[in-house]
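Thread amino acids onto this structure.
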């Protein structure tokens, strides 16, 4: 039931937003063509009911935009976390590959078999 109500609510929101956007496009096109247009009258300036409708539509669009941005931000943070975890797992598996007792000790510079290891701090890139 809630899914149906949400779908109906979103459909109504989409219709209101589409209607207001179409009206704005029409007014802009007519102004660009040089036609005399009563912009205030067409957009409902001075009519409390129409002004309230515009305010509601603008607020709904802003809220929808915030939701999309938050969702994208969370998705990006999850991707960064997964990359960091996979790098940690790789580092752990690399340290496990070292001979027993050698994982915590740096390689000696006098050991001919030793290869230099570069240790760098991994920080997630959020931006």
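Threaded sequence (127 positions):
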């Amino acid at each position: 039931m809630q899914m149906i109500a949400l779908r109906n609510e979103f459909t109504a929101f989409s219709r209101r937003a589409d209607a207001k956007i179409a009206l704005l496009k029409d007014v802009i096109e007519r102004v660009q063509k040089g036609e005399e247009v009563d912009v205030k009258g067409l957009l409902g300036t001075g009519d409390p009911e129409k002004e309230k409708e515009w305010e509601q539509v603008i607020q709904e669009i802003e809220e929808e935009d915030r939701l999309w941005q938050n969702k994208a931000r969370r998705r990006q943070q999850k991707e960064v976390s997964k990359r960091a975890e996979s790098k940690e797992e790789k580092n752990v598996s690399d340290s496990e590959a070292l001979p027993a007792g050698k994982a915590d000790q740096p390689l000696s510079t006098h050991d001919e078999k030793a290869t230099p290891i570069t240790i760098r701090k991994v920080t997630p890139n959020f931006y």
